[in-house]
Design goal:
The protein is an all-alpha fold. It has 21 helices and two strands. Strands 1-2 form a two-stranded antiparallel ribbon. β1 and β2 form a beta hairpin. α7 packs antiparallel against α15. The longest helix is centred in the N-terminal third of the chain and has 37 residues.
């Protein structure tokens, strides 16, 4: 009875940890391509019926992003009509299907080991399926955690989802490293006009098999997540919207204790008069803030900056790319933990503002020093400052706010729109980085270098001003308080 009065933290943490596995899969799926892409490219270069150009390989390497946009757009419909839990089960199944399909795209349809254009299309379909799973998980995992967590620790628990994303990326880097073992990546050289050739001295195992094991390895965490998510409860907020008050009260009691549960249930019922409301019920500013949080998280250029970090380290004589990756991964994890353990003390806005300032300093530092002999250390430290600042601010805190800032009745649809914008701008930033970086006003100048990082620095400053002026502080507020917050606005 004592436990029922106080609630069970062990129960809360167990269901949150299962949901956090979805974040790990998010990170795993988006990063698995990094170790597999060279072997995959060499495999399809051997095709007889088409030329596997740089453009085709670039599309194949990023095709999962198409699925991410689709999945995030679908997340609102699935979460609102089938529930958060069932939507996560669907995401887990998509991860599992994608892992096995990407490992063996020939299954039942094609001759094994024979690269063709049709096989490439099939492979990309499997990667898009996985991307849909990522899009669903990226929107619904934070939403699920936010809706089961008590208001006083909600920010911390949702922040663990970002930690899981970064940890998932680090795990897959390590898994790819173990799979590769004593084998080596194929040696590919350009023969002009975006066409490449594989040198005869390349390791045949990596070309025929290695990349398959890397994609297939995701089936293990995907299968585990899909099984475990079946045993967690639906969120109380969704259950009340579905008219299942008694089930909602039971879950609230197990998490918060019976007395507190009655009060929370009463607050939920006051804000949920109908199952759903129109998207603009609480005004355009509510949706605009959610969308811009997502836009700024990508527009600050984090993916482009991290993408180029290994080359910076290479210029400093660090020749082992695995060491570079692990160093960045460890920095990212440590500073994500800063957010996890300070978000409830310092609040969301201070972390976002200070993170934006830190990123601006780092980006301007790279813009000024990149490529200048003798300043490599400053460039490296600027990259580190930028990355660390993102990891304690926009990385986790954006997800916290997106999960909690919208009123209950529009949360499913609003989160879907916000996260879709995040993936769209992820694609825009990732695809625009190389052309911008290689821009020249005169032959051989560094215009593209300082312009690109200077632009990211300016965006970071604008992001800080946006948070200061328009983003409300949600620390300590219940999800039901969001209805009152936006009605006042």
């Amino acid at each position: 009875m004592q436990q029922n009065q106080k609630g069970s933290k062990a129960y809360l943490f167990s269901i949150v940890m299962v949901a956090v596995l979805g974040g790990l899969l998010f990170g795993y799926d988006t990063a698995v391509i990094s170790g597999a892409e060279k072997g995959l490219q060499a495999f399809f270069i051997g095709a007889k019926d088409f030329q596997h150009t740089d453009y085709i390989h670039g599309f194949t390497s990023s095709s999962a992003l198409i699925g991410c946009i689709i999945g995030s757009l679908l997340s609102g419909f699935l979460a609102s009509n089938f529930g958060r839990k069932r939507a996560l089960i669907i995401a887990g199944l998509l991860f599992f299907i994608s892992a096995l399909g990407s490992m063996d795209p020939e299954f039942l349809l094609f001759e094994h080991g024979v690269p063709t254009f049709s096989l490439l299309i099939t492979f990309n379909i499997y990667r898009v399926i996985g991307g849909i799973g990522v899009g669903l998980a990226s929107a619904i995992c934070p939403m699920y955690i936010g809706e089961v967590a008590p208001s006083n620790i909600r920010g911390m628990l949702v922040s663990w989802n970002q930690f899981a994303i970064i940890f998932g990326q680090l795990v897959v880097y390590f898994v790819n490293f173990l799979i590769l073992g004593e084998h080596t990546n194929p040696i590919i050289e350009s023969i002009g006009q975006g066409v490449n050739a594989v040198l005869p001295s390349s390791d045949p195992w990596t070309i025929s098999t290695g990349w398959r094991y890397m994609f297939g390895s995701e089936a293990v965490p995907a299968g585990l997540f899909t099984i475990l998510i079946c045993f967690v409860p639906e969120t109380p907020r969704y259950l009340v919207m579905a008219g299942k008050d008694s089930k909602a009260l039971d879950i609230l009691s197990r998490i918060n204790g019976s007395e507190k549960a009655q009060q929370i249930l009463s607050d939920i019922k006051e804000t949920i008069t109908v199952r759903t409301e129109k998207l603009m019920t609480y005004g355009w500013l509510c949706i605009f803030v959610g969308i811009m949080l997502s836009v700024f998280q990508q527009a600050v250029g984090i993916n482009a900056v991290l993408y180029y970090a290994p080359r910076i380290f290479g210029d400093m004589g660090m020749t082992n790319p695995m060491v570079n990756t692990v160093v960045m991964g460890v920095v990212n994890i440590l500073f994500t933990l800063v957010a996890v353990f300070t978000v409830e003390k310092l609040g969301r806005k201070p972390l976002l503002i200070w993170g934006s300032i830190g990123m601006a300093i780092g980006a301007f530092g790279v813009a000024v020093t990149f490529g200048h002999e003798g300043l490599e250390i400053v460039t490296m430290l600027s990259i580190m400052v930028y990355s660390a600042s993102f990891m304690f601010s926009w990385g986790p805190i954006c997800w916290v706010l997106i999960a909690e800032i919208f009123p209950n009745t529009i949360r499913g649809a609003a989160v879907a729109i916000a996260v879709a914008f995040q993936w769209i701008f992820n694609f825009i930033v990732s695809s625009s980085f190389v052309p911008m970086f290689n821009m020249h006003l005169t032959e051989g100048d560094d215009f593209g270098h300082w312009f690109t990082y200077g632009l990211y620095g300016v965006v970071c400053v604008i992001a800080a001003i946006f948070v200061w002026k328009l983003v409300p502080e949600t620390k300590g507020k219940t999800l039901e308080d969001m209805t009152k917050l936006w009605k006042k606005a």
